[in-house]
Amino acid sequence: MNVALWRGHIPLMLLVVLLMLSVACRREVAPPPPLRIVHGLWAGYYALDVASETTDSTRALGTGADAMRLATITIHTSPSDLYADFAGGSFDAVAGSLPDLLRLQQSVRDLKIVVCTDESNGADALIAAAPFPSIGALRGKRIAIAPGTFVQVLLAQALEREGLHMQDVEIITTTASHAVHLLQSDSVEAIVTWSPPLDAVRQPPYHILYSSSQTPGLILQCLAVRKHILETRANTVRQLVSRLLALSTTYADSADALRPLAARAQGRPVSALPPAIGMRWLTPQENRQLLRAGGDGTLKQSAEPHIRYLTEIGGLRSRPDFRVLMTSDFLPP
């Protein structure tokens, strides 16, 4: 072997290797796929929807400069299908009401609440036909509700204000949408339901006797994420939560301004989204109180009425451990 000739090629070989390394270093690493989030049709999630993608709004807030879509949004109009699909592993995160997430965590044990998006502030209500001017007038009357939902807790609180109990009225179980039809057809004297179905009976001859505006903190909506996603995609979750809270703060007094942007994120026409009324977005400070480390945040207090009710109907096999169920690690400082 001609050692001198071999040595003569070494500089050339090193140059080729260095060029290959340089090209490899410049080659862009493919970004991770967006998180897969599912939720129902509710105006309180508009900030979450907009936060999922980079828009002019998020750029203006300084929260979207990386131009990366953080999540894809899927909308389910059927709550049962929504939670069944999530439990089946089709999604990384789910936004839902606190009692629904409490029940879901019984079967999906690796679920953690990372932020609470909003609270109902009039979007859930007890509505009666004109001949029934007060809650007391509903004694012995028919009230339609969706069974096993937070509206039963709202109804129980409304009745208690007048010294009544659930046994003092006739409960007709149905869906949130069909309850409106029953009221309009005089098949029941009152209903308890939520927006958007509720919006069809806000005007005379119907009237609101009691609503979530009288029960602050009772009906919260939160975002829960699978534990392995929190471990492997922590930065993405933090970015999403930070964007969400920034948007919620900026648009606190003009929530409906986010509806067109939310429609784009959902891939739906604006007309398909209900107006952002009857809800209030929660602030970063409120979230820090709700999700306080150690499981002793105010979220635990808000959950108590729902835990009692769900335990009574067999919806919870065991009491939730809030040290496991929630985390404040993904909130901005």
TrEMBL record:
Its main location: periplasm. Keywords: Signal. It is found in: Periplasm. Belongs to the bacterial solute-binding protein SsuA/TauA family. PANTHER family: ALIPHATIC SULFONATES-BINDING PROTEIN-RELATED, TAURINE-BINDING PERIPLASMIC PROTEIN. One of its GO terms (cellular component) is periplasmic space. It comes from the Bacteria. This is SsuA/THI5-like domain-containing protein. Signal peptide: none annotated. InterPro entries: SsuA/THI5. Residues 129-202 form the SsuA/THI5-like domain. It holds the Pfam family NMT1.
